[in-house]
């Protein structure tokens, strides 16, 4: 199936919780998604509820949902130290 060239890019993002743990996710709108997580409403990730304040520490753009999902899986498998290195390089 041909891809639509005007399609929105996907983003991978990493959020750091108050306890220092990382949460990794994907979205087409990082600002909206981060606001949902911070609000702890129905659309927030259950993992993040009650773990604030939250800090958006990393994001990267990817061309499609498939590549964003593959990148998310890869990053979730990284050690804590490697995630710290990724975040430091991205800033």
UniProtKB/TrEMBL annotation:
Would you say which domain of life the source belongs to? Bacteria
Q: Name one Pfam family in it.
A: GIY-YIG
User: Known PROSITE patterns for this protein?
Assistant: GIY_YIG (PS50164)
| Residues in GIY-YIG domain copies | 8-85
User: Which InterPro entries does the entry link to?
Assistant: GIY-YIG_endonuc, GIY-YIG_endonuc_sf, UPF0213_domain
What PANTHER family does its record include?
Answer: UPF0213 PROTEIN YHBQ (PTHR34477:SF1)
- Similarity comment: family membership: Belongs to the UPF0213 family.
**This protein is called what?**
GIY-YIG nuclease family protein
Q: Which organism is it from?
A: Shewanella subflava
Which lineage ranks, top first, belong to the organism behind this chain?
A: Bacteria, Pseudomonadati, Pseudomonadota, Gammaproteobacteria, Alteromonadales
